[in-house]
Structures are given as C-alpha cells and as structure tokens.
Amino acid sequence: MQTTAWITSTMGVGAVIAALIAVSIWLEKRFRSLAFLGSAILVITGGAVLANLHIIPSALVADKETMHPVYAFANDVAVPLSIVLLLISADLKSVRLLGRSSLIAFGLASVGTVLGTLLAIQLTAGGIGPESWKLAGQFVASYIGGGINYAAVGEALETSETMYATGAAADNIMTNLWMVATAVLPPLLRAWYPSYNSGGADESITRAQQRKQVAGISLGQMGLLLAVAFLVVWIGDGLAPMVNEALKVNIPAVLWYTTLAILLSLFTPLSQVRGGMELGHYLLHFFFATMGAGTILSSLVDKGPIVFLFLVILVAIHALIVFGLGKVLKLEVEMLAIASQATVGGPSTALALATAKRWDRLVAPGVLMGLLGYAIGNYVGIGVGTLVKAWLG
Fold this sequence. Notes:
Mean pLDDT: 85
Helix content: over 70%
Strand content: under 5%
Low-confidence stretches: 199-209
Shape: globular
Oligomer: single chain
C-alpha cells in the first residue's frame, strides 16, 4: 500500500505531516468554529484524507517492521516522550481529588464495553462466522485496555490471520471515529452535565493563556526536559524485559516510564520547568497524523462491514452506559469522555484527548485509567470470549 502513495520518502512524508500540523494549529487559532474541534481532530482528519487519496502512505500495515519510518517515529518515539513530558508537567497534586470519580467512570466504561459486546455478538454472530466468539473476546480486551490487549487475546484464542486482520482494520477506523466523538461531545453536552468548565472558562481561553506562556520558555528548559524524557523512557524500556524475565510476568514498558515520570513530577522541581506541555502536545500531533493515516476505508473488505457493524453496536451501548449512567451519578462530562477514551483507545489516546482539549487536570487520570485497562483487559477479554463460545454453542 505504501508503494502506491505519491510521496514515500522519509523527509517527504515528514514534510507533509509537519505542514499538516502547522496548518491545523493555525486553523484552530484563527477560526473559532475550528477551535471547537481542536488541532488534534484536524490532523487526524487531514491524515485520513491524505492517506486515502494515496498522497502519503497508509499507516495500516500487517507487520510493524514494514511501517513507514515517520509513523514508526510517532509510535515508538513521539508517544513515549510525550507521555513523560506531559506527566512531568501535569498538576499531579490535584489527581487525588479525582480518584473516586475516575474509578467510577472507568468502571462504567468497562461495563459498557462488556454489555455492548454481548449485545453486538448476539446480533452479528451469524454474519461473522465461527470465530465470532474469539473476536468478541478480543474487542472486550481492546475496548477496556487498548490495542495491545487485542493482539494478546487474539494470540491466546488463536484467531485466524484473516479474521485478526479484518478486526484490526475495523477497530482502527472505529477508534479514530470515537476519538473525534469524545472530543466533540463534551462541549455539546456541557449544559446537562457537571463540568470542569462550569466556572465559565473554556478551552479557547485556556489556549490563549498558554500561548502567552510560551514566550517565557527557553532553549535550556526545553533541552533539560527532552534529556529527562529520553532518559526516563530509556530506563523504562530497559527495566521492562529485565523484570519480566526475572519475575516471569509481562509488564509493558509504558508502566515503568509512566511511574518514573509521576515520581519525578511529585518529588522534584521538574514540574516547575516550562515547556513540557507544549513539547508533549506537539509531539502527539505526529501520533494524531499516524492515527489518521491508518484510517483506510478500503480495508473493510469481505467480512469487514459486518465486523464494523459489530463495533458500531458495541460503542453505541458503551456510550449509552458511560454518558447515561454518568449523568445519573453526576460525573463531569470531561471525565466521562477521558474514561471512555482510556478504555477504547488506551492510555495514549486518553492522553491525546486530554492534551488536545487542554484538560490538563485529566492528563494523569487518563493515563492511569488506560494502564488499569491494560492490566485487566486480557483477563476480562478471555473470560468473555469463553462465555460467548459456550453461549453460542
């Protein structure tokens, strides 16, 4: 798919994506109607358009080793660095105030995923075929803990390569669509829910204030933050295989560098160094572009449409439970959106949503909810898959 693109060189694709990011940030700043969406959504949409028109390569590949270098940079370098930078700069002292509501929101999102899966598989199992129970287990795991869990449960249940690829393609499209939805819904629903912005502040004001602060950022501050971020990710990547081998466990590296970043924010003056939010937010835009470039409509072939319908039903029930019961329980609409994104997309997309909408108080809760989903997703997914297999006979 990459060979059919007009622009394939590393510098060429990098130039297109950097230009897309710059234009999206300018549009967000220039037009209030587009500020409502935010630069993240503009970059995701632009990336999808460019990839589907074959101007840049697709990010949807069967083997990670064949992924374009710019997309590999976004996933393997930009995302880890942005997680560390944003957590170091986050106001973690306020996180304890969000503990109860974040756990309730996460619980609603997880229950919504399970119930949505059970209804969706009842309606679509005939069309999907004999491996429908496996797909049910994979999507429960994925929509509680993110894409890593989809892969792990697929391997555990021995899903065929064809069904695995079909599910992955539909999942990629739905995840990106839900990213847009969780960014757009809170401003629309704010009048009927408790909100962090109920005091009258909005994202556009917050963005304006933060842009003024950028003038005070020095090259030395940026250099220090990037050096610390690279060091923390390096340590996390090194600790993961050592501990996993010694203890016979499978703890992802993201858990280690997230923990280190939180400790640095709480117990060192690094949280006072300016520029972490801005650097992390910019780096995440490469991830947004990669998300968009992976939204390839032509990938929905054969059983793709029925699998996508399965996801539409799943996410609809998930959303109904999250935002319906969330309103009854008087949870903030932004927290509900972050919890939903943390389960459906994982910690990276929860972090992306929080920073894109400038919900800085929700950066750490979003990442932590995503990590909790990582921890339990495989168990719930395999359990539900086994249950559905017995149910369908």
